[in-house]
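Pinned message: reference record for Tyrosine-protein kinase receptor TYRO3
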Amino acid sequence: MPTTYFLGYRLKIGIVVIVIMVLGFFNESQGTAHYGEDSVGSFPYFEYNVPRNVTTVVGQTAFLHCRVEQLGDKAVSWIRKRDLHILTAGILTYTSDQRFQVIRPDKSENWTLQIKFPQERDAGIYECQVNTEPKMSLAFQLNVVEAKAHILGPADLYVKTGSALSLTCILSQGPHDLGTIFWYKGSNIIEYKEVEGNEIAMEPRIRLKTEWTEQLTSRLTIEKLMPGDSGNYSCVPTMAEAASVNVHVINGEHPAAMQHGNANTASPCALSVNLLISLYCTIATLYTSTIDGFR
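Predicted structure (C-alpha cells):
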C-alpha cells in the first residue's frame, strides 16, 4: 500500500511538471511570435508597406509617408540626408524653409513630410527617424523632374487655306499622373465639341483627342482652315512647362515648313525645287535685260 501511494504521488508530480513545461513552452512561443511581429514587445517599428521612391515634377507638392507603429512616448523626426538638417521633430518644424511641414492627423501612426513647390535641388534622400536607443531610421528617395511639353514639327508652320491642320503635343517625362493638356490660341483657350458615337451631327471643324500610352499625347485637328486661324498655338499641360508653335494660313505655296495632310514636317524637296525655279527666273531676267541693253 505505501509503495502504491508513493508511485501515485510521483505520477501526480510528474504530470504537474509536464503541464508546467507545456505552459512555459506555449508562453515562450507566444512571446517569440509577438517579438517578430512588433520588433520587441511594445517597441516602435516602421510599416514598410509605403512608397519609398517618390517622383514628382517641379512645382507639384510632394508627400513622403512614414508610418510608425507603437510609438509610445518616442518622437518622430524628418532629416535631410545630404546636410543632416533636422526638418521636423514631432509636429514642430525646425527649418526656416516654410515649404517643409509634417502632417500628422490626431492619434494617427502616419507622419507625412510635405514639401511644397519642390525644385530639382530638393531631390535626394530623406530619413524618418525615431529617437530610440539605438536610433531607428527609414530612408525615402525623392526625385524631382522638370517636365516639358513638346509639339512635333517646326516652330513656324505654313498651311494652305482650306486644308487641315494637325498639331501633336507630347509629354513623357514626370510621374505617371501627368494631369491633362489644354490648347490655347494666343491667350484664349480653344473650345471644341465632342460628338458622341450615337449622335447624328456634322463632323466638328475643331477636334481634340488626348490619350495616355507610354506618354501623354494630345492631338489638335482643325479642318477647313481660314486666314483667321493663323496665330500662336500653345499646348499647356497642368503639370509641365508649355510648348507653342506659330501657324500661318496662306493662299499659296510657301518655300518652307508647309504642312501636307497631317504631317508637321517641312518638305526639303519642295524647298529645293522652289529655289531652282527662283534662280532660273533671276538668270533669265538678267539675260533678257542684257540683250535688250545691246539692242
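Pinned by admin. Summary line: The longest helix spans residues 2-38.
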